[in-house]
């Protein structure tokens, strides 16, 4: 593979296939396993790539070894007192540690020798082996483990073995051990065993602690102050360990001294006499952290013998622990015993805040120079601690944090004017004993100290601290002084608003964020404080909603100047979301809480207006986190584009849409919330249960709503709704005038629909007014023709129409009238659309929406009218038909592409338009065709497919003269009602056809074909004519339509009349099923009509349909006539077979599509005849005759071109006929009848194979004969009949056929012979295999499965082992 066209050379190591890794023999040109080519240019290129990869891997291994050796050398040179020798080719750049000057000239490649230097060391020559851990690490681990074990032994000895020795012996052992370890460190250090010496020094320090513990145990009965003794012992241990490095210059003793000194201040506080000093241990802990940090700053940078890093770590840990404990006490502890406890907590927070600020001052000596900037985490935590100090200085119950009060909208009088502390639950047994002035002074002192500490340490964070300290300091004023709740709420909201809005004046961004966050929380606190009183809550919601609106205006003004703070935007967004959430809760409370006063609803409506305006303003201002191009450029204002073009990728679009959807709810709230604006379904009446007199009752009474009592109150409520709607439009006009039309479309329903209910107008007037408002919106969309502004009016108009339909449900006639009005709106909109040039998508959709609503509502009402009790009402039928007529006409009119006055081409002939039905045209035609069905009675005969009074063939002959409705099982109609029904059906049919003729003249024939059957067929039945006359009338109508379809020369029009005519004939045949002789006559008449239509047809579709119908109806007549003459079913089934034979004889003379039109019904009748014959089954010989006749017909059909598949069907049918005849004759030896034709078939196949130019398949030549020869015998052998002679015969024949197939290499004889031998052997020489399987124990399957899984697992493990061996082999290669 290393030369073009040559195989791999046999010299060198043995090669492997690059693809499957199989070993390759010498001189091979392709892989024996996978067939990969190993010669040629491409193979040579692959060999070069693999060689280069192997070379790179070898270089990588060498460089890794060299790196380990160099790293050990560099560590050895970095020890103190041993100046390092720079590596060849490198020197310090500027005296700084770690600085390296780049070498001059080009850089040598990795692994190559440096210029003028020695060659790099190789990993395989003279390099030390690389271990998992370094020697120093191993050494330290061993030493540390030894020291730990010694310390544990000493502790065990001191605690558990102390009593086994005397006092002197015990003291001597511990003292001698401690002194020995302390003194042995000196010679070890002098000999250079520094790590060992450090270990001995650490053990000596630990033994000192054990000595102190032992002394405490010895003097336990004499020591009365445990914390004091512990503090003294730790102080003594710390002093000794701090002085020990003067004897032996070690590092670890002073680290131990720094650690053991940390608990001393806390222990001193605990040991101090007096009660109530335990809370002051927390300030002592914080002061310890502060002292550690001060020592760090005083001691300077890290150096030997000075534990600067240890003090820094202890300061950080103690500071964090004290802060966490303080936060838990402030937020989680509900009460305190006395004021001193909380003041101790405030002191701890102040000290922790000072410590955090000191952490942020740079440089800290214990930190590397890389961390030069101030720590943001320390600064944030320190500011939070200082901000919580005034909070901790106040009472434990002081709710200056956002906490939910215990009561919500208390009904107690005077809640808003009561003292805030009492309403919020600050008085009682848990209240603090001091006066409010004392607590207020403590809070102010904590705030002043926090500000002073910030000004002293970090003056740049003074604004941040002020923003954090202001809320807990100022909010405590109305609570600690007996001020009313309303004053406290307003004060909190004003403080929060000042903090939020003051963000625009702060120059620093960080201060702005802090001010915005604290102000937002303060506003939330004010809202929560207002919860005990309803009006206070709603007023607080109004004030809280005004803050983000004013803040956005300030942000917009600052944005024009180019200095807009992002924190102000975020605070406004947060407060706006808070106002929305609170408004939602208040709305639910007002809705579920029963009757509420209208001022409460007006306040909520005003808050909704503010929230909606704020959302619109969010959509106008530039987002501070987006690029300037994404927002509105400064100065654009109202001069921006007036056509709204929302960008879905811009989040501001979501704010605009939300604001537009939120503002229209204000009129609903101004009208009383759920009374009536939010009521979609009527309350007291179920659908269609209200009397007719309810149409004149007040609307609020029928709808189950409450209305204002008195004319003045009603006018005031209506005026409030109108004013709210006008304010919605005005706000949108001021904030973003581009959406004025959209806002008007959204506000119109909510402002206009409630007016009739509020004014107490009649129920019918309210429904009509609602439908009129919705229709006006949709008509406005149609007239405007603009798609950009039309979708919103379309949606609101549709929703208003739905509301009107829902309101109309209580009374039946009102519902139908509303449906008619909605349908009429659809028709008017469609007619207006024809006058609009180039209408937009919304304008084209406007007529469809009310049409769809009317169609759905009308369908539901029509379905419900069938179960509605009461006498028939022609007026209700006519209303339903009128609605359907309007919807159908609107659908046809909407599908017209041009208006009537559209100009025609000036030159040339007018082209004939293609008759392509649009979906709306088809829908309109179908709806108009169904109008006569709706205009008639609900038991319309056109819907009766068969007689409901008589099962098929059971009606007596005199019933033909009875009224048609009695035979069909329909309810009779009184004389006037019947006349009205007949008139309604005829007039509705004429109107439907007239509508199509006016709106779309070219579809008039289709309309006639659709309308004629439902308009004409039911007339005799509704009029009470005899059944025979009604049947003849229906057949005549269907025949006329079929013949008309045949006579039409327009191929685009002729199919539909034929289809409706055939359906009408089918309806007549369904009616005729009631009497057996009548059905035969009707089938004969229908067959004659279909034959005449097929003969007279001038277009292809009627010809094909007539041929198929004539064949099917003739077959039905042939089956029905013998049955009508009381012939058995087996004999009657032979008549359709005769028809099938006649069709098979005539079909070869037909051409084109007429062939399948005749053959398909004939085939179906053949199948049906066999099913009837088999179903009767009384005479098996007749069944065999039917099977044989159909088989002969199928075999005769197979000789025609393209019908060869029928040969198989014919053979199967004749085979089935043979077996049926044998069964009928009780033949026990079927081989006498099956063997001769089987051998004949084999001879024919042999002759076919011998003489055919291309020998056929053995399955085609011998398969059928062999199956006929073996199948009967094998089946009888398997069933156990005649095994004495059949088994040997089958075995002999099977062996012979198998040998024949093997000798001639024929698949069919070989496969069938083997299958016969296996099947026969399984039955003849033992029980079935399943019986043997059932005898096995239950564990056998599980054992087999287990062994199989073990085998698979072993195989898989062996494969993995081979892969690992291969990987090791490859990785070991050079």
Automatic annotation (TrEMBL):
Protein name (record): Integral membrane protein
Region annotated Disordered, chain positions: 75-131, 629-648
Residues in the signal sequence: none
Segments traversing the membrane: 141-162, 168-188, 200-219, 231-248, 255-274, 311-336, 342-360, 372-393, 436-454, 461-481, 487-507, 514-531, 537-555, 567-593, 599-618, 711-735, 755-781, 788-809, 815-833, 845-863, 875-893, 914-935, 977-1000, 1007-1025, 1031-1048, 1055-1073, 1079-1097, 1104-1125, 1131-1147, 1154-1176, 1182-1199, 1206-1225, 1260-1279, 1285-1303, 1336-1356
Low complexity bias (residue ranges): 80-92, 105-129, 638-648
Keywords: Membrane, Transmembrane, Transmembrane helix
């Amino acid at each position: 593979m290393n030369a073009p066209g040559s195989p791999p050379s046999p010299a060198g190591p043995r090669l492997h296939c690059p693809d499957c890794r199989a070993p390759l023999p010498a001189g091979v040109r392709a892989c024996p396993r996978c067939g990969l080519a190993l010669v040629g240019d491409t193979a040579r290129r692959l060999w070069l790539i693999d060689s280069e990869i192997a070379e790179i891997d070898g270089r990588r291994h060498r460089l890794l070894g060299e790196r380990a050796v160099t790293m050990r050398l560099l560590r050895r040179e970095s020890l103190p007192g041993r100046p390092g020798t720079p590596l060849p080719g490198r020197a310090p750049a500027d005296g700084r540690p770690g600085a390296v000057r780049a070498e001059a000239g080009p850089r040598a490649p990795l692994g190559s020798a440096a210029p003028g230097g020695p060659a790099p060391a190789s990993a395989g020559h003279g390099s030390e082996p690389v271990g998992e851990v370094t020697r120093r690490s191993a050494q330290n681990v061993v030493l540390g483990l030894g020291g730990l074990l010694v310390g544990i032994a000493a502790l065990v000895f001191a605690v558990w073995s102390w009593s086994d020795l005397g006092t002197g012996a015990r003291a001597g052992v511990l003292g001698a051990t401690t002194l020995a370890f302390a003194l042995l460190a000196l010679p070890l250090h002098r000999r250079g065993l520094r790590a060992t010496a450090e270990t001995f020094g650490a053990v000596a320090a630990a033994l000192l602690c054990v000595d102190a513990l032992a002394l405490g145990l010895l003097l336990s009965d004499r020591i009365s102050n445990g914390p004091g003794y512990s503090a003294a012992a730790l102080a003594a241990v710390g002093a000794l360990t701090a002085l020990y490095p003067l004897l032996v210059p070690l590092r670890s003793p002073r680290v131990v001294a720094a650690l053991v000194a940390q608990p001393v201040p806390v222990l001193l506080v605990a040991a101090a006499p007096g009660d109530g000093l335990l809370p002051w241990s927390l300030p002592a802990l914080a002061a310890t952290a502060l002292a550690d940090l001060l020592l760090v700053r005083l001691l300077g940078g890290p150096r030997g013998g000075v534990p600067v890093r240890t003090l820094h770590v202890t300061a950080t840990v103690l500071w964090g622990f004290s802060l966490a404990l303080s936060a838990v006490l402030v937020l989680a502890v509900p009460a305190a015993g006395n004021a001193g406890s909380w003041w101790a907590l405030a002191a701890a927070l102040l000290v922790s805040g000072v410590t955090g600020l000191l952490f942020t001052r740079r440089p800290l000596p214990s930190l590397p120079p890389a961390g030069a900037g101030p720590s943001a985490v320390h600064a944030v935590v320190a500011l939070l601690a200082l901000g919580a100090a005034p909070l901790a200085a106040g009472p434990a119950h002081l709710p200056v944090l956002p906490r939910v009060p215990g009561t919500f909208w208390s009904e107690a009088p005077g809640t808003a004017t009561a003292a805030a502390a009492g309403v919020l639950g600050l008085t009682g047994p848990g209240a603090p004993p001091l006066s409010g002035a004392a607590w207020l002074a403590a809070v102010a002192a904590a705030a002043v100290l926090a500000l002073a500490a910030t000004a002293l340490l970090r003056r740049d964070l003074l604004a941040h601290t002020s923003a954090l300290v202001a809320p807990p300091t100022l909010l405590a004023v109305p609570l600690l002084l007996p001020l009313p709740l309303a004053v406290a709420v307003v004060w909190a909201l004003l403080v929060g608003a000042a903090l939020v809005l003051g963000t625009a004046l702060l120059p620093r961004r960080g201060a702005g964020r802090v001010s915005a966050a604290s102000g937002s929380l303060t506003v939330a606190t004010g809202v929560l404080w207002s919860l005990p009183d309803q009006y206070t809550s709603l007023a607080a919601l109004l004030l809280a909603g005004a803050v983000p609106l004013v803040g956005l205006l300030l942000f917009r003004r600052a944005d024009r100047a180019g200095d807009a703070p992002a924190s102000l935007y975020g605070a406004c967004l947060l407060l706006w979301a808070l106002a929305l959430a609170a408004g939602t809760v208040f709305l639910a409370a007002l809705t579920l809480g029963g009757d509420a006063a209208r001022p409460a609803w007006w306040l909520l409506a005003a808050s909704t207006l503010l929230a909606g305006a704020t959302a619109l303003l969010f959509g106008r201002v530039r987002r501070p986190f987006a690029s300037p191009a994404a927002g509105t450029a400064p100065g654009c204002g109202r001069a921006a584009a007036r056509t709204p073009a929302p960008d879905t990728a811009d989040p501001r679009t979501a704010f605009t849409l939300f604001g537009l959807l939120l503002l229209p709810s204000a009129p609903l709230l101004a009208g009383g919330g759920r009374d009536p604006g939010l009521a979609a379904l009527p309350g007291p009446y179920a659908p269609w249960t209200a009397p007719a007199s309810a149409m004149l009752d007040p609307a609020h009474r029928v709808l189950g709503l409450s209305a204002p009592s008195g004319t003045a109150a009603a006018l005031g409520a209506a005026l409030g709704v109108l004013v709210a709607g006008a304010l919605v439009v005005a706000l949108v006009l001021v904030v973003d005038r581009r959406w004025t039309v959209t806002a008007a479309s959204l506000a119109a329903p909510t402002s206009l629909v409630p007016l009739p209910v509020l004014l107490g107008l009649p129920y019918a007037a309210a429904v009509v007014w609602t439908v009129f408002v919705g229709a006006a919106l949709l008509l406005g969309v149609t007239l405007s023709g603009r798609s950009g502004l039309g979708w919103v009016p379309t949606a609101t108009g549709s929703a208003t129409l739905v509301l009107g339909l829902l309101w109309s449900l209580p009374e039946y006639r009102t519902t139908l009238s509303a449906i008619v009005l909605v349908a009429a709106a659809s028709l008017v909109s469609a007619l207006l659309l024809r006058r609009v040039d180039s209408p937009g998508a919304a304008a084209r959709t406007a007529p469809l929406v009310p049409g769809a609503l009317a169609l759905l509502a009308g369908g539901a009402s029509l379905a419900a009218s069938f179960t509605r009790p009461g006498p028939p009402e022609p007026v209700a039928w006519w209303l339903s038909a009128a609605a359907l007529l309007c919807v159908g006409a609107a659908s046809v009119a909407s599908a017209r592409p041009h208006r009537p006055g559209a100009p025609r081409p000036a030159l040339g002939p007018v082209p004939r338009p293609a008759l392509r039905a649009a979906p709306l045209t088809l829908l309109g035609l179908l709806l108009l065709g169904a109008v006569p069905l709706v205009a008639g009675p609900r038991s319309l005969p056109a819907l009766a497919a068969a007689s409901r009074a008589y099962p098929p063939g059971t009606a007596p002959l005199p019933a033909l003269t009875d009224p048609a409705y009695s035979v069909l099982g329909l309810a009779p109609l009184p004389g006037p009602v019947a006349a009205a029904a007949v008139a309604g059906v005829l007039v509705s049919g004429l109107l439907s056809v007239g509508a199509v003729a006016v709106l779309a003249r070219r579809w008039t024939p289709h309309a006639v074909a659709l309308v004629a059957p439902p308009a004409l067929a039911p007339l005799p039945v509704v009029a009470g004519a005899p059944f025979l006359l009604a049947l003849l009338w229906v057949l005549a109508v269907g025949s006329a339509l079929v013949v008309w379809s045949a006579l039409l020369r327009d191929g685009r029009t002729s199919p539909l009349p034929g289809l409706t005519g055939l359906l009408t004939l089918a309806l007549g045949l369904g009616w005729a099923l009631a009497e057996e002789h009548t059905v035969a006559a009707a089938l004969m008449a229908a067959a004659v009509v279909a034959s005449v239509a097929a003969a007279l047809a001038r277009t292809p579709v009627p010809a094909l349909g007539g041929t198929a119908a004539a064949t099917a109806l003739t077959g039905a007549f042939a089956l029905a006539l013998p049955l009508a003459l009381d012939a058995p079913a087996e004999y009657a089934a032979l008549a359709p077979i005769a028809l099938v034979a006649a069709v098979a004889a005539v079909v070869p003379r037909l051409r084109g599509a007429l062939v399948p039109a005749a053959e398909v019904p004939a085939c179906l009748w053949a199948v049906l005849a066999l099913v009837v014959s088999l179903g009767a089954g009384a005479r098996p010989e007749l069944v065999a005759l039917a099977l044989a006749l159909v088989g002969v017909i199928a075999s005769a059909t197979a000789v025609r071109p393209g019908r060869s598949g029928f040969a198989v069907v014919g053979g199967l049918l004749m085979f089935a006929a043979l077996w049926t005849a044998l069964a009928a004759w009780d033949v026990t030896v079927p081989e006498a009848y099956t063997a001769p034709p089987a051998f004949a078939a084999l001879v024919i196949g042999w002759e076919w194979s011998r003489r055919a130019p291309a020998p056929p398949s053995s399955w085609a030549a011998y398969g059928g004969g062999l199956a006929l020869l073996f199948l009967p015998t094998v089946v009888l052998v398997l069933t156990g009949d005649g095994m004495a002679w059949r088994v040997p015969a089958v075995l002999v024949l099977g062996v012979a056929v198998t040998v024949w197939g093997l000798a001639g290499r024929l698949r069919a004889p070989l496969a069938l012979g083997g299958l016969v031998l296996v099947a026969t052997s399984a039955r003849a020489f033992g029980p079935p295999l399943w019986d043997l399987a059932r005898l096995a124990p239950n564990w056998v399957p599980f054992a087999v499965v287990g062994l199989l899984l073990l085998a698979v697992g072993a195989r898989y493990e062996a494969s993995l082992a081979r892969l690992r061996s291969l990987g090791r082999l490859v990785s070991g290669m050079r």
